[in-house]
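Moderator note: this is an archived Q&A kept for reference. The question asked for a predicted structure of one protein chain; the sequence and the answer are reproduced below.
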Amino acid sequence: MRLHRISGLPWLRLIQILCTLGLALVLWHSINWGLFAASLAGLHWGWLCLAALLLLIAHGFNVVRWQLLILPDRVNFASILSYYGAGIFSNNFLPTGIGGDGVRAALISRHTPMWRAIWSVAADRVIGLVGLVSIGVLGLWFGLPPFVADLARSLSTGWLVGITILGLVAVASLAVLWRLVPAVRAHTITAAQRLLPASEIWLRIMPICYLLSIASVLCLVLAHSCVLLALDLHISTGAAIWVVVIGSLSLLVPISVNGLGVMESVYVLVLSYYRVSAPDALIVALSIRVLMILFSLLGGLISLGQSWFVGMAAGR
């Protein structure tokens, strides 16, 4: 069984590569490359540089948030920055946009027990998603994306009743599992007891971490707005919010390498409802993608530099 699982991993990678190539082929045939080149030539690079700065600030908020969640163990900022950089660099090779979380957990476990390392990374990811959803709620002020509004109108009462019933069944199943499987209850209680000594500290810093998450997502929204302005696209702020929310969630889908093709397709789809042409939408997606790759490479270099300095210090 173990051999079968190991040998199955290359098949997963092959499927992801094929999906990535397939999505890239679809995009290739759906884009007017003449218009793409014209829009690219007319880019306002000042707005693009501002977008890069905002993305860098967003990463800075994320690093500080993670450092707070590693308490009560004190880990210096340079090490946290190095491990965070290694994590985002690893995303380029791992199945989803959050694959580097395992790398972060493994690296930070050098300074803290493994269970606490996993907790810090998981809590960091959950708070990040909560911040993302919160900005999505803010996006409701500007109205639902047109395709979501169309979908909501098309849903019948029967669908809503069915979804509600499925939700109740899921909750009831978890309740039965809790009552009938002692091991689940025992492990949950044990985990809670292990977290309890530090729970007071974490409860104090959770609001701060949440605000850092909000600030990070707002920087992402502003960065996307800057890229749109770089193309002279003056459209609703809601467009930038929904592109960030839906595009970020698309990275969780493990059907391509680091979301390649998936994120770009989502950008083209979402922005098309705001009357942005496919070539311009693809430029927005690729601009964000290139900046993400550059920052991930920078993160990898920071991680390597930190390891080199540690190795030099140990060799003395």
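Archived answer notes: The radius of gyration is 22 Å.
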